[in-house]
């Protein structure tokens, strides 16, 4: 069931040329695989085909994108179905957002799955890197691919979840730094995914990891989905505890920075830092994806309530310090959800 041995005649289609998908596509092309990037945005496609990143701030992307486009190893298109037909590996990296009711909006992912299914050929590996509620790959995506293609999932084609674990601005470094997790809908799918990712990724030495750095096959597709939600939801829960500590420290007149530093001097304490909000496209969103699979879970739900309440707490503290804020002009220094990015997603500002 092994597919792909690094030979350039094996095409790879990366669907979604955003801040995670485009650097991944460039990484793959740089390892000698012919890559077709698919994106619904014609402007993005035109810029990529010109060797120009469609967004700023991604370390080393300018030179690496220009090189693979110039060498003819990468092109971009808007026609996903045709790109899939020419490829034996398909990687899906399109966003899964939550709606006003904190439920997953699958519209973009379902649309891509429709196009992939209609272009699917026997022997193809389809890897979903989008972070998903547990059970989505096996129960929603793989059956739809099978229905549209007329092929048998796990036999005629292979399906895995391999969650992206990188941060925008440092994608190439993060691809080397962290183990690449893969979990298939069956053993054949996991083996195909592991073979592929081993052929296109390089890894830093990580003596701190007992298992070593590299591609980590997991026991099931559900294990891969759950691992990504576990590592991100943990951070939201940790920050919620830090925020509760900060509120309590305020009531005591204690310096929360001093308290956390002192607590973390003991090696079993790893308290994060408090703040006005938990920002970005991942950490404030993925606890809701976790809760869709485990709706009775208490800690993810409570952590969201705590962290969502911190902007109000900050404004109330300001009003308490200087009086009513009506007709006041307030300068907020720091709009982005973290340093080095130019986005305000869920930043609380």
TrEMBL record:
GO terms for molecular function: NAD binding; oxidoreductase activity, acting on the CH-CH group of donors, NAD or NADP as acceptor; oxidoreductase activity, acting on the CH-OH group of donors, NAD or NADP as acceptor. GO terms for biological process: polysaccharide biosynthetic process. Residues 223-289 form the UDP-glucose/GDP-mannose dehydrogenase dimerisation domain. Residues 12-192 form the UDP-glucose/GDP-mannose dehydrogenase N-terminal domain. This is UDP-glucose/GDP-mannose dehydrogenase C-terminal domain-containing protein.
